[in-house]
DNA sequence: CTTACTGTATTATTATAGTTAATACAGTTT
DNA sequence: AAACTGTATTAACTATAATAATACAGTAAG
């Protein structure tokens, strides 16, 4: 569920932050749901509790979770902002890809055509 | 011309690799053009020659440049080899993101605006 | 009240990657 | 010969991530 790649160049605690953020935004983790305790999570994925704590501290400071000493760490209410945050993330990704395509020599016009094609495809197979 | 951010989390040598790759792909650096020597480049951007060498070694192993001991390092002929496959991959990613954005209610028109903004931002960066 | 959980904090240590530094050697260019 | 090139090697320094070992205080349940 919370998988990390210990060999990745991006730090474990940051992978955790990203993963959990994503799950919260996608509503895989719901409001007030309890996250595994730092020690339990540390056991689960066999890494040091301090690393988990660092991730949780970061998530709390960004408002994604709230922690109560003695009780645990819980998912914050991000309901009203969830969709916006998700769009924000996707927009950033889009920006990066567009920039790469442009420097690879793909003209903006062509990129916009791709956007249209994606929309068309989406209407065809109305799933997802 | 070859600027790096020494405070970035991405290593200097990798920034160099990326920058030079981009310039080659965009044809800012042309086939058989001579790159600054490791020592000269090191002076230019005030970092260690070994770091430059590491970048050049990487670029050579990826086929972007070729180095001749005693002469220098030169841009390879990569036209039509390197970038096409990347464009394919990026196009698929673009498609996925666009579909998600549409699903979230972002109109196609707005997405195209984002494309334009990305292009504009890119031109800003390019002049820096 | 005791026990076993929670989050939190602190300090020390290890591991790793990036970078710098100082040389050295051999090929080339003039 | 002198001044360039790329290349290689070894050592040292730095910053950051991660581990380890504790400790303390709040909460919940028996």
TrEMBL record, chains A, B:
Domain HTH gntR-type positions: 10-78
Keyword Protease tagged: no
Domain of life: Bacteria
Alphabetic keyword roster: DNA-binding, Transcription, Transcription regulation
Record-linked SUPFAM superfamilies: Winged helix' DNA-binding domain (SSF46785)
Family matches, as InterPro entries: Tscrpt_reg_HTH_GntR (IPR000524), WH-like_DNA-bd_sf (IPR036388), WH_DNA-bd_sf (IPR036390)
GO molecular function, one term: DNA binding
Protein name (record): GntR family transcriptional regulator
Organism annotation: Lacicoccus qingdaonensis
């Amino acid at each position: 569920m919370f998988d990390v790649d210990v060999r990745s160049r991006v730090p474990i605690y940051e992978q955790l932050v990203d993963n959990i953020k994503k799950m919260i935004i996608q509503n895989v983790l719901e409001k007030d749901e309890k996250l595994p305790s730092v020690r339990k999570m540390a056991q689960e994925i066999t890494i040091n509790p301090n690393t988990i704590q660092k991730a949780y501290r970061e998530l709390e400071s960004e408002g994604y979770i709230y922690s109560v000493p003695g009780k645990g760490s819980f998912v914050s209410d991000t309901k009203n902002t969830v969709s916006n945050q998700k769009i924000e993330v996707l927009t950033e990704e889009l920006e990066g890809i567009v920039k790469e395509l442009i420097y690879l020599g793909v003209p903006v016009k062509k990129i916009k055509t791709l956007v249209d094609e994606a929309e068309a495809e989406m209407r065809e197979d109305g799933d997802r």
